[in-house]
């Protein structure tokens, strides 16, 4: 993720995401995107619960 950026910066950013409860998944597909105010929900295949974008 973010290949053109400094690896240390990417590591810091990914750690910050995890600390905030943001689960970043790469190399996957999205089956659906739904608007459920105040969030946008991404539903990847075979995932126990959908991801939310606030």
From TrEMBL:
Organism: Vreelandella sulfidaeris
Keywords: Plasmid
Record-annotated Pyridine nucleotide-disulphide oxidoreductase N-terminal domain positions: 2-35
Official protein name in the record: Pyridine nucleotide-disulphide oxidoreductase N-terminal domain-containing protein
Domain of life: Bacteria
Record-linked Pfam families: Pyr_redox
Alphabetized SUPFAM superfamilies for the sequence: FAD/NAD(P)-binding domain
């Amino acid at each position: 993720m973010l290949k053109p950026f400094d690896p240390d910066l990417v590591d810091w950013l990914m750690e910050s995401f995890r600390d905030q409860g943001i689960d970043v998944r790469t190399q996957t597909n999205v089956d659906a995107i739904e608007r459920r105010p105040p969030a946008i929900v991404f539903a990847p295949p075979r995932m126990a619960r959908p991801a939310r974008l606030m």
